[in-house]
Amino acid sequence: MEGLTGTREIRLERRQRALETLMERAREILAQDAQPSAAKEAGIVKFTASAFDATSRETCRDIAAFDAFAAAFAGHLHAGDVVALHGPLGAGKTRFVRAVVRAIQGHEEVASPTFTLRHRYERAGRVPIEHLDGYRIESPGELAESGLEGAFDGSAIVLVEWPEHLAPLLPQRLYRVEIAGAGDEPRTLVVEPPR
After folding, report:
1. Is the dihedral of CA 20, 21, 25, 26 positive or negative?
2. DSSP type of residue 154
């Protein structure tokens, strides 16, 4: 009986933390509404959380619009969500991750984990984010030795660059984000929700 009580207490603590996180996020959103945000200035106010329940497409004419789109998308993510980021070198996959991490965690320092394969971003009271990069994984053996399967335990949002290299680890249900464009040209983003 004691084990059940402990389990209930843990669940209650998790719910309390989730509620506190939601309240903090609501306060942040209300504070942002008082000032013009990058999303408003970039004309991306149409993206509410429900906007990402169906395939969405946006052409971002500049970096501010790109970051605002990624931040709006971040507002829809929850622990256990996996996002596969597709696009050529220089398309902005790491920049997209940076905007999501900034929106959820408040971290400014986000770098591609090309050599380390994995970065984890955590801040008290916020959903952790796992950032994976499969670019350097070239064989099933390397993947098996990478230890990346631990990122998919459901406790964090998982953002994956070069997901085709990590395909055996990816769940069936995931968001697919396709980024087209490079350099100073506009970027087109297509977000497909889990099916």
Report:
1. negative
2. S
Q: How is the beta sheet containing 175-180 ordered, strand by strand?
A: 56-60, 187-192, 175-180, 82-86, 157-161, 129-133, 118-121
Task: Return the bridge partners of 124, or none.
Answer: none
pLDDT digits (tens, 9 = 90+) for 103-140: 999 877 787 777 678 889 998 889 999 999 988 888 88
Strands 129-133 and 157-161: parallel
Tens-place pLDDT, residues 58-94: 999 999 999 999 999 999 999 999 999 999 998 999 9
3-state SS assignment for residue 117: coil
The model carries a pTM of 0.72
What is the DSSP secondary-structure string of 6-63?
Answer: HHHHHHHHHHHHHHHHHHHHHHHHHHHHTS--HHHHHT-TT--GGGGGS-EEEEESSH
